[in-house]
Structures are given as C-alpha cells and as structure tokens.
Amino acid sequence: MAENKKKVEAVSTAKSATKTVRKVVRPVFIVDGARTPFLKARGKPGVFNAANLAMGAGRPLMARQPFEPGDLDEVIMGCVMPGPDEANIARILALRLGCDKRVPAWTVQRNCASGMQALDCAAHSIAHGGANLVLAGGVESMSHAPVLLAETMVVWLAGWAQARTLGARVKALQQLRPAHLKPVIALLRGLTDPVVGLSMGQTAEILAQRFDISREQMDTYAARSHLRLATAQDEGHLAEIETLYDTQGHFYTEDDGLRRDSTATKLATLKPVFDRPFGKVTAGNSAQVTDGAAMLILASEAAVKKWDLPVLGRIADSEWAGLEPAQMGLGPVHATTPILQRHKFGLEDIDYWEINEAFATQVLACLEAWKDNQYCRDELHLPDAMGELDPSRLNVDGGGVSLGHPVGASGARIVLHLLHVMERNAAKRGVASLCIGGGQGGAMLVERD
User: Fold this and answer.
1) What is the bridge-based pairing of β-strands 133-141 and 74-78?
2) CATH number of the domain bearing residue 427
3) Which one, 178, 299, 317, 416, has least CB within 10 Å?
4) Cis amide prior to 37 (ω within 30 degrees)
5) pLDDT recorded at residue 23
6) Alpha-carbon distance 135 to 90, whole Å?
7) Quick check: is 205 in a domain?
8) Is the distance from CB of 304 to CB of 31 less than 8 angstroms?
9) Is residue 310 assigned to a domain?
10) What stretches of 301-409 show up as alpha helix (H) in DSSP?
C-alpha cells in the first residue's frame, strides 16, 4: 500500500506542470441534507413529478433550519428531464419553498452527475466569496419521461394546421400513415449515446469484455447490493430519507426497489437485455429506473458561525474528467485519480467510497482498472497500477442496483449518504464518484474532523 502512495506522489509531481492545482479560497461545509425515498418506475408515470419530489426533500430540510428560506443566497438543482411545466426547476423549488423572490435559482445538467454538478457549483460559489448559504442537489422523475411524436408526425401536424379548406384537409388525411403514429420513448433515447450509437447498457457490455468480468461476478455484486440495502434499512442507517405523502393519503418511507430475496442464483435466471442472447448485463445487475430527489445545504464558515449550524463535513476537492464515450463506465477512475494525485493519497487512504452503481459491471470494471498495470500506465499515465480498493468500504449500504438511479439526483445522494456513513463510523475521509453518459466522470472528496 505504501508503494501505491509513492506512485501517486511521483505522478503528482510530474503532472503539476500541466495541471492547475486547485486551492479552496474559503472552506465549504455541508451542514445538513435530506432525500426522498427512491421509488421504482413501474411502467407508467409515478405518483410524483419532479417538482413535487424536490419539495418532498426540500420542505422538511428547510423547516428544521434556524434560518429562513429567504436567507439562502442561491438554489441550484440538477435535473436531466424536467417536465414541460418544470422549466428551470430550481427556481420553481425556490419559490415554492418560500425563498425571497430575490434569491436566484438555476438548474444544471450533466447527465448522471447533475446532482453532483449542482453541489460543485455551489461549492465554487461559496469558496470564492459569491455566496454563504446555498441549497443544492438534484431531482429526477424518470417515470415521467415524455413519450414524443416522431418528426414525421410533427411535420404532418404542421401541414394539417395549415390546411384551411375541406379539400386541403382531405389531402392531408390521405398523407397520414400508421408509421407516423409510432411514439418516440424519450427515456430510451436519452440513455443512448448519439455520438457512438450505443446504449448505456451496451457500454457496460464492452467493459465486461475488456476486463473479462463474468456474469456470475455481476450477479454476485448485484445480490450484495440488495443485501446491504436490506441491512441498512433494518439497522436504521438511512436517516436522511424523508417520508413522502401523496394526495390520496398514501405515504412512502423507504426505497421500494429492494429485493430482499435476491441471490446470485436467482439473478442468473434473467436474460441479457442489451446484447441478446450472448450478453451478460441484465435488468437484475443494472441500476433501476427510479424517481427521487436529494438535497444538501452548503455553507461558508461565516454562515456556520452566524447560525450555529452543525457540520456534517466539508468539500475538500472535486474533479471532472472525459474519456471514450463507449467506455463511459470507467469515468470514476479518471475523475478520482487526479484528486488522489493532488492530495498524495493512495486508494487505502480513503476511509469510505460511494461509486454510483449504474451497472454492477461498471463498478467492477473500475476496480479492475485500478488494479491493471497497463490501464493505469496507458490511460491514467501512472507508472504502475494504483492497487486494490477494499470492497468492504465501498457502497456499504447498497447502491443504484438496489435502490435506484434517478439520474439527476444520484450525484447528490451519494455525497449525502457518504457523509452519514463517515459520521456513524467516525471516519475522516471519503470519495463519491459517478460515471456519466457521453464519456465523463465526476468525483468529490469530502472530509470530517
């Protein structure tokens, strides 16, 4: 392990001439956070749209603060697919929470890491003196992803609208074809990379082949994710969840995608989805399509003192990286490694890790990449392999495979939960990271005293 740290130190020195070392002008603290239960999409629009999910997390979070919503300097939210009535959903949330109309709010989009991007924007604003108190996070109601009309149908409708006479309308009707009525499923299109023409699941299959990850390894990892989430629920380790209430008197208290009876043997019976019939990636070893929201309150040292706020931890560093879109699942490796270099850390110096489980394969591939001499030399420009990440310190309470991956929210969720894991284990240092569709990775280093 000591050798791994020396490798990082050596490369850190070599790269310092070409990469700017970031300095935090002012410390950035995370003082509180909350999220909704993550609710699995079940073939039709769910009970809550994105704006209501955001309120479900934001209202109880703000209600317990010693300051008023109007004392916030900004509201920043990540969201990939807001509804047609949710343009700039951060502003909608801010006004519904009772923020003063003068409090600015804006929405960011970086695919799967949108929630983390919101945190990063908030952290930069505070670090450089632009704000003292920011509400930031992410939300997604994937079950409400729109079903669209094909472009041919849109063109036909335009012609129909321009037809003024009976004859023109009869002619337009004669041009209507059944194929025009074929819907475009926005969720499926959104989960496909338009540059390389691959779905996210197909990129996971590429990683399985590259690192020779077996179907059994994937299913074993997936079953473990469910087991860990079940244990976390039973032992009360998900205190960040706020109960959701719908208009019919129902309430939702837990992530409902959990399959307590999940085993590798049962998962082995599922058929591949993305590379039939020979692939390995199935619905069971992939993240669930889910609705949910997660939010955190970030504060400067001055705000912490003014309001006597508790401190969950501080954001010590962050990184964004790009890589080949067809292998986007390795994004956490590319985003996290520069952070480790800057701070002269090895993998063993991080107490706990949250790597978003887009696919079981994808997380396993990241672990294999760090162990692979050639990958670390060719792709990360290290002299040798980084080493092994201890799986007992990774996603200790489950992840996207078991609790879901609402794309706009997951980046905020993993940071919030990581801080709770560190708090209960008296840990000092943690890393949260995600792969990002389109070939990117994001990572955030958080610390506690």
Assistant:
1) parallel
2) 3.40.47.10
3) 178
4) no
5) 56
6) 10
7) yes
8) yes
9) no
10) 301-307, 331-343, 360-371, 373-378, 400-403
Length of the chain: 449
Helices then strands, each counted (H, E), the chain: 16, 16
Q: If residue 172 lies in a helix (H) or strand (E), which one and from where to where?
A: helix 166-175
Q: Is 383 within the bounds of a domain?
A: yes
Question: Along the chain (449 residues), what's the average pLDDT of each consecutive run of 10 residues?
Answer: 50 42 78 98 94 98 97 98 94 96 97 97 97 98 92 92 92 91 87 91 96 97 98 97 95 96 96 90 96 98 98 98 97 98 97 98 98 96 96 97 97 98 98 97 97
Contact 114, 80 (CB under 8 A): yes
Q: In terms of DSSP H, where are the helices of 393-441?
A: 400-403, 410-424
The catalytic site residues sit at 112, 405, 435
pLDDT of amino acid 221: 98
Q: pTM higher than 0.85, yes or no?
A: yes
How many angstroms separate the first and last alpha carbons of the chain?
24
Residue 163 within a domain = no
Predicted confidence (pLDDT) per residue in 411-435, tens digit:
999 999 999 999 999 999 999 999 9
Instruction: Show the tokens assigned to 427.
Output: 């840990």
User: Kind and range of the H or E element at 353?
Assistant: strand 352-355
Partnered with residue 317 across adjacent β-strands are 445
